[in-house]
Amino acid sequence: MALIGTYEARLLRPETAAGAGGLAVLLVLLDAATGLGAAGWLAGAVFTVGVWTLLTRALHRSWPPRPFGPANTVTLLRTTLVGGVTALVAESFASGPRTTALVALTAVALVLDAVDGQVARRTGTESALGARFDMEADAFLILVLSVHVALSQGPWVLAIGAMRYVFVAAARTLPWLNGPLPPSTARKTVAALQGVVLLAAATGLLPPVAARLLVLAALAALVWSFGRDIRGLWYVGARGGAPATGTFRHRSAVVRGRADERV
CATH code at 97? Predict the structure, then answer.
């Protein structure tokens, strides 16, 4: 009985329950405003269960235990918006895009991405869990947006959303890819650029050629950023060489708001 009680308590974390409830409310509002069909509801439900499960597990594995905190609350709100974007993108395959709602939710999510880091630093609540939570929310939003933009620009856009996940998969077989990355303003700028560019392309307000060139430029910048980091990791990890001047000279600290690590 004690084991069952512990398991139920783990499932009933107030933070994750609040997030799941918030996304359910958002899906109802989106249904009333745009008419979500089965595809949208299914995608939203799967997203809710996935986030609930992964976040609950991460909270119970984090040590030492600490309050959820205001910064993670902001990230949870942003994750709820990402769930709404996911539902809208899934529904676009079944019954056409809901551009206005998608753009509105994405814009707010991107703005909040700059807020949670500031909240963490001002309240002294930076944590490895918070950095990872923030990064995963960012990565999934970019993945979903790339799927949406790929409908009009072509499947090559999916490379933007998939690149980080390919990197993570490769790191499982190439241990040197798990090496630490130093803080990099260029990396942060390129990462932030992806969401802004994909949002601009998603609005449909840009001429097709301009949208294509803009997304291509964002993809090129992302390839450069990953290539630069992979080269540095290979030099230090695979070759066992000394860190290059000005690059990979120290282990990075995990900074709340955007982790300075790929994985």
Answer: 1.20.120
